[in-house]
Amino acid sequence: MEKDSFEKEDVAKILNDDFIAIKVDREERPDLDNIYMTALESMTGSGGWPMSMFLTPDGKPFFGASTIPHDQFIGILSQIAAIWRSDLAKIRESGAAVTEQLRQYLNPAGAGKSRRDIDQEALISFYNTAESQFDKTYGGFGGGFHRYSVDGKWEVPHFEKMSHDNSGLITAYLEAYQVTGDRDGESSKRAVVSDYAFLIHGLIELYQSDFDPKWFEWALDLQAIQDKDFRDDADGGYFFDDAKDPTLLSRSKDYDDTYRIRADDLIRSAAGRITASPFSYPQTLIALDYALDRSSPSSARRMINARRR
After folding, report:
1. I need a surface site. Which of 76, 170, 181, 206 has the fewest CB within 10 A?
2. pLDDT in tens, 25-77
């Protein structure tokens, strides 16, 4: 849309005349992206970037879409501007309704009371979903250094790199270090809960590579900060953001944890969402896999049989 719309004079005129246009880097503000992408998915049934989200002055979303062709974008802008002038109450009512639904989804009241047990059926469901999406011809699920490929042969990458996509490489690099003895790398980003979780995980992996206690001590210090800034003591689990931005519509939950003493509470508080959409919670399912300790022959045989079905 940058070339197709945002660099065009006709689009710029409408935006400057009738809107306050704000461009947000979702790598810099993943907390904002998390909220408004959820809103987009609830409005349209799917998400995607670039995301265009239209908000009331107090930040409530009332219309959104991902990639919009130039002529359609001009029409949408003109329509919204006209309705804003002729029926502002309708837009505000729509924004309030979407925001209320969004808040209930991101942080449902009393969610902790719905804690329930969850078993390896969630892992089996996740595996079956992953297997159905695997590209048997060219391999992969669409991850890697770049987010995914834009062609079927995996020769043209989508030129975008996401920290949470690449964070899984931490383990691979550390295991490579265990073999080669070579290690390097540094990163600095605005922190959300997943940044703490993955860095803590990486530090624990690092500790296992050379058993230097400073890595484990650093992990404990980070965990203390994560607990203080992100943990929901009332309903369990961790919030995605640290609540330092009062303009956010709602705090959402992110189900990552590192302490075994809290793992059961965390997993049970997320059980409903995991069961409904296991592919959306891969890290929590990894934790569930560890928590279940499926080392007995009968459990292993059940997973193998599920794989063969």
Report:
1. 181
2. 887 888 888 888 988 988 888 888 889 999 999 999 999 998 899 999 999 99
Q: How far is the C-alpha of 6 from the C-alpha of 3, rounded, in Å?
A: 6
Angle at 228 between CA 37 and CA 107, to 5 degrees: 35
The kind and range of the H/E element at 230 are helix 213-230
> 2-106 belongs to which homologous superfamily?
Glutaredoxin (3.40.30.10)
Nearest-CA neighbor of 174 among 201, 205, 196? 205
Query: 65 pairs with which residues across the strands?
Result: 52
**Location of each CATH 3.40.30.10 domain in the chain:** 2-106
Beta strands in 209-299 (DSSP E): 238-239, 253-254
Torsion from C-alpha of 228, 232, 233, 236, nearest 10 degrees: -130
Taking CA 136 as the corner, what is the angle to CA 138 and CA 288, rounded to the nearest 5 degrees? 110
> What is the C-alpha separation between 286 and 270, in angstroms, rounded?
13
